[in-house]
Each structure stands twice: as C-alpha cells, then as structure tokens.
Amino acid sequence: MSARCPMTCHFNCIIPPHLLEKLLRSDDSEVRQAALDTLMTTSRLRGERGVRASFVGSAAAPGGGRRTVFDCKHSTSLPSAVFARSEDGPESVDVSANRAFDGLGATRDFYKAVFNRDSIDGRGMRLTAFVHYDKRYNNAFWDGHQMVFGDGDGKMFSDFTGSVDVIGHELAHGVTENTAGLEYHNQSGALNESMSDVFGSLVKQWSLKQSADEADWLIGPEIFTPGIDADALRSMKAPGHAYDNDLFGKDPQPDNMENYIKLPDNEMGDFGGVHFNSGIPNKAFYLTAVRVGGFAWEAPGLIWYESLKASHAETQFQEFANTTYRKAAELFGDDSAEQLAVLAAWQDVGIQISGILAGVARARSLAADRSGGTGGENGLATVSQQIGALAAQVTGLAKDVTALKSK
Predict the structure, then answer these.
(1) What is the pLDDT of residues 35-68, one digit of tens each?
(2) pTM here?
(3) 172 and 204 belong to one structural domain
(4) Would you call 131 helix, strand, or coil by DSSP?
(5) 261 and 273 belong to one structural domain
(6) Which of 132, 169, 185, 275 is catalytic?
(7) Containing domain of residue 224, as a range?
(8) Start and end of every Peptidase M4 C-terminal domain (predicted)?
(9) Which among 10, 132, 145, 170 is annotated as catalytic?
C-alpha cells in the first residue's frame, strides 16, 4: 500500500520500526518473538481498514472531548473489548485504564486552554482509548479515531500508558490530520512526527507547569524498563543522544540538514525516515523555546500551532520554516524577540529563512542573543541603538581632531 494513502497516514505508532528491527537480533528469544509479533501486527493493521472502522460512530460523534476507555484483555479485537472507564464514571481498578483516561484528559485540556481548540478535531471529537492490546505488544498507536496501548514485553518496554507525552504525541497526529493533513512520507512525514513530538512535549510541560529551561525535552522516558540504558525514544534538546547502547545502537536522529537521512519511501524505510529526520525541526522548536524563555506552550507553541494550520499536505521543511517566521511576525511583530528566536533556531539547524541573507540573519540572531531574546527591546532596536552610539562617538572624535588642527 502506498505511503500516501489515507490509511497509512492515519496509522501512527510511537515506536519507530528501526528499534523493533534491532530487537530481532537480540540474544533473548522472548524479546525477539515479541518484536516480531509487534512488527507483524503493526504491518497487518496498516493494511486493514477494519480497525479504524470498529468504533467510528462513537469515536467521531461530537461530544466535547468526552473520554471512554476499553480493555482489550490482551486480544487484538477492538469490538470485543470491555468497558473500563467513562467521563462520568468512577475510577477503574485498572491502573492502565486510569492512566490512559488521565492522559486523554490532559491532552484535551491542553488544547482547550492554550489554543481554544475543542478536542482533537476542533469539533468536540470523543476520545476513545483501548488498553492491554494484544500480548507483549511493544507499541501504542493512533489509527485516525482512537488510541490503542500495548503493555510492552516487560523486558525492553513497559506499559505504554505510563508516559503522558506519548499519549500527547499520538493524539497530536489527530490534530495534524484535521489541520494540515501532512502526508506521512519524507519531509512532510518528518514534520508530521515532529509536530507530534512538539505538542506531546508541550502537553507534559503544561501539565507539570514547567518552563522551557526546566523541561527535559524527552519523548517517552518512561516506556523503557529500568534495566534498559536509554534516556528516552527521542531527545528534542539533543537529537541523536537519546540512547547509545549495545541493544539499540546509537540514536540515529540528525539535528541539522547537513546530516539529513535519505531512506526508501516505504514501510521498511520508515517512509523516507520520518522518525529520523523529525530531529531537525524538533531541535528548531527547542532552540526557539529556550531563546524566547518562559513557558514553551505560549509564544513558541502558538507560532508552531498557527503554522501547522497554515500548512498543507506536502509542506516541506523550508516552507514550514518560512511560515513560522511569518507567523511570528503576525503574532508578535516584525523583528520581535520571538521572530528573531525563530530565525536563529532554523539557521542553527541548517535552514535559512527564504529572502533573508545569511549575513543579515546571523547579525540579527546575535543581536537577539545579546539582548536576552525575551521581553525587552527587540534585536533590531538594540542594533540601531548601538549604531547610534558609535556614530555619536565618531562625531565627537571628529570635533576633537578639528579642534586640535586649529590649535
């Protein structure tokens, strides 16, 4: 099935295929089998429309983002799942059901409070989740209408409901589907993955009331079991440094366009490396957030959200970077600290905003850094003041020279 088909675009997993493929070479037969089963199940689901249609009526009907959680009881049949928790009901005795319920709520409330968005589709979409999917299933996925969580194999991965940024990441795919509809391949697909990392991280930061400096900027730090030497699935702060061990190897994410990874646009090639190259726009968002300072979901998050809404299915890195620069000006003003932070961030990952000479961009970026990048006078005003002060000094020196000559 083509990477461009709606079904493929709507089926998004948190664990990239290259990590599961690494596990196929594990010395532990149980780990190998769990990885193989997960890959086969995931591949099968990508080719089936039934999983998306299972609860399409209840999931799609508007309902103010009301939540319902079902328990698959280790089956792969969603229609046979049993009820576990609803919006008006009591807590479940199942910890996984409660965590999924809380993660759905945190994500829904984030979009409403920060962007005034009514649930994932902007029209009150009901939020449905399924826990305990399959046996030792090493993944969690969004299929276009609902969230599905595996329990992990217990050796490499733990219960996927344990990480709120994973839940936020997967639900953000639904936001992207209902805004830009970024096609899931090559650069548009990497942007799709990056938007989910950005908003997944922001959901966690908003829930914890963390500033950009306080946040860990890690995606899925809780899903590895304690015995695995890995910080997380990905690091937005330092793409390429989330893990480095004998089992998974070194995190392959690039953080600059000069290291962009070209892979086949098919399932085995991660649809052109969407989970790899998302590290580049991830780093750009992180750099923007720390330059602006304060809470990342405010100015930086708003710029990225409005840029997503202004994008289209085939938007590439360059076009998205240009859009963030333009949106920063629309929201905060030309040469504002926010716009200069965006300019510098994209430049730092090897993407030059169109129409701005590299030297000018570098000068503006340096000026923004000197002025602190937040709150005070913008970078252009600072440069103007510096030039004015130098001009006054030159004028004064010229007068002194003239006076000396006359003597």
Answers:
(1) 999 988 887 776 654 444 444 434 445 678 999 9
(2) 0.86
(3) no
(4) strand
(5) yes
(6) 275
(7) 179-358
(8) 180-351
(9) 170
